[in-house]
Fold each of these.
Amino acid sequence: MAWIPRTAEILRAVAAYQLAQEALAADFAARWAQVLAGVEARELAASLTALRTEYRAAIRESAAASRTLSVAFYRLVRALETGRVIGGPGYRPGASLGSLWADFNTATGKRTGTGAREPLPVDTRNPFPAEAIDREARRAEETFRQQIADRVEKHEREHAERKGSAALDAAELIAWEREFLESLKTGGSGAGGQIVQDGGRDMIHNALQDDPGAIGYYRATEGSPCYFCALMAGRGAVYKSKRTAAFGAHPHCHCQAVPIFSRRYQLPDANARFERMWREFGGGSLADWRTHYTKT
Ligand SMILES: [Zn+2]
């Protein structure tokens, strides 16, 4: 008997997954803000080595959680859509919709669904890539340099230049320092949060390529995405090819890749809304779309 995709359950899982990935990025941002709050402004330059260590550790741990979550999500969506279980990390013999929902609920920390305990047929293949820890560590290092170390050094130079000139009064100086600290917080958490969520996005994107059961993916957006992400989401399914385009996330972006295994998939309401907006817009440059999207 042909399996009927459990569309309503899949859409619930998608919404829970997007929120859980967003929460991982928020946890990371909170941790980074706390680290920064523990350092006096005048000690930042001297604390860069310690800050770098903290930053990298926070990214490593949150990205690992993002990957674990994405594997549980992928396996659950695949089973709900095809009635079959895929192997790889976290696979347990006798897996059922019940056990897959339980794994997903554990990974998200929320009870979103339940299912029967009947074991499902298994595709023993492992499509999930080995963790690219080295590449991720290099990205974290580079991001720290751009978002934190370079800013701190520039700030130190400006401090030295301003010392003699007395160009700022006390209130201006306080505002300037506050803005600087804010830039370390926002820049560090935005770019770092992208690496964190790319843990899960890359996992799904790579698994698709190596899973003959997968036919493509679509973009699930956060509540009110930016114009770029709305456009990407409005395109609907991206069917996989030899060179499926990169996902194209950006700092402070909480969009996620949702794998598709059946032509009978259903998009979340938001995607259909963006598609309609795009049609009404009628075409034009990206800048025109931005204006159109922002005022709608
Ligand atoms: Zn986005």
Note: The radius of gyration is 22 Å.
Amino acid sequence: MKQFRTDLHIHTVLSPCGDLEMSPSNIVSIARNRGLDIIGITDHNSTKQCELVWKLGRSSGLTVIPGCEMTSREEVHCLGLFEDFDAMRMFQSFLDQHLIVIPNKPLLFGYQLVVDEDENIMEEVVNYLGASLDVSIEEIEQKVHELSGIFIPAHIDRPRNSLFSQLGFFPPELKVDALQISKNTDEAAIRKEFRISEEITVVKFSDAHFPDDLGKIFTIFEMESPSFGEIRKALHGVDGRKILIPSPSP
Ligand SMILES: [Zn+2]
Ligand SMILES: [Zn+2]
């Protein structure tokens, strides 16, 4: 079994709130320099920048998992991660079908850019990606799982856009693969506060929007190889795979 430094919640320049320095090339080189082994690309309500990050990651020995951070009708943020581009593209159609259409105002919300590896602008997304989808968190979870993806409610401890801030409880029907907590949150305290069962894995990811945040927080996945199947096994503690949250540095 090997240990992999993993951060599955990272935004690119495509997210309206993502810094313009968060280009695919920059993300891959910073992630490598800071010792990450596996990253997930999770822009708000879009997967359009994943493929290039994956391609650049592959040529520099970094595993990249395509994904997305969705906003449900209840304004809960949740992560979907996919095994391949077929599943990711099917999920993109779901996003296109369900994103509530609000034109983006770049000067107010930020630019939403798809760029190439030399940071040339290939597309400017016109619909505001910070809007909600018109579907519930349960419907999103079902779609992610129908496509054999991994579903993780994001930053559950935050006072906005989290499972607990928006719903106030953990919906019993919701099938999560893990729950993500924020950088400075204590796992034991959050488990107690929200009555999270020990059977559910808790992870910490950066939710990086700026280059500085990349690599500062991650979770160690102890598993055989950096594959999607192994990541799923680690999240569910199958066959000796496990998750370790490093103690915060002083
Ligand atoms: Zn979020
Ligand atoms: Zn995020």
Note: The chain is about 25% helix and 20% strand.
